Amino acid sequence: MKYPYEIEEDPRKLAELGFWTEDVYRDLMACQKGLMTEKEFTSRYHKKSAILCLDMTGFTKSTLAHSALFSFYRILNVQEICYPVFRACNADIIHAFADNFAVIFSDPSDALDASFEIHKRISIYNESEREMKDIVQCCIGIGYGDVYSIGHDQAMGDEMNRASVLGEDTAKGSETLVTENVYETLKHRTDCLFRLQTQDDVPFPFYSVQKKEECST
């Protein structure tokens, strides 16, 4: 049956959605029609990156308990704490959305260092005179590998998906979880302790990681 409704196939108009650029839409359409090979598309847009996905705990609960404005304060406070850390750890791209961060690094070691530093600073903040009514913690997932340098975060693909699952759905407060790729790349680090984890609802192996000095305290 012929599809009876309008289909928008103008890359320029689709780019107004703010999801992909006009060039990406044009090239994807060319691939779909067989005018560009998948190999050509991949060579144009593939890039090796480390992806850090951060989610804040208690966002919905704090909104229900206090107010929408209070939840905005919590987001503001965490952004004020995290942004300098990401910059100091050589982040290439930093994007915030609601109570989440998606941050892109060239080096997965920088991403891991950023996660340790964020957990430390959030903990100190919670004990300082600037503490929030509801304690906030961060859940972090990190992936590393070839992704497509397209979209809002310039990193779409399997490792971005895995980092998102770990950071937004799996990690607990103050926990950092990493993909197998990250573990294989950074397992030589003598300052870290990696532990293999499995969960029935996570369809891939992953690792929790801590600084060794924190494991002994």
Q: What can you tell me about this protein's structure?
A:
The structure is a single chain. The chain has 217 residues and is of the alpha+beta class. The chain folds into 2 domains: 11-36, no CATH class; 46-215, Nucleotide cyclase, GGDEF domain (Alpha-Beta Plaits, 2-Layer Sandwich). The protein is built from 9 helices and 7 strands; from the N terminus they run αααβααββαβαβαββα. Strands 2-3-1-4-5-7-6 form a 7-stranded mixed β-sheet. Strand 2 (93-97) and strand 3 (100-105) form a beta hairpin. Helix 4 packs antiparallel against helix 5 and helix 5 packs across helix 6. The radius of gyration is 20 Å and the shape is globular. The termini are far apart.
N-to-C series of helices and strands: HHHEHHEEHEHEHEEH
Radius of gyration: 20 Å
Helix content: 40-55%
The quaternary organization reads as single chain
Cα end-to-end separation: 66 Å
Beta-strand segment tally: 7
The helix/strand class is: alpha+beta
Sheet bearing the most strands, described?
Answer: 7 strands, mixed
Number of domains: 2
Could you give the order of strands across the largest sheet? 2-3-1-4-5-7-6
Rounded mean pLDDT score: 92
CATH architectural grouping of the largest domain: 2-Layer Sandwich
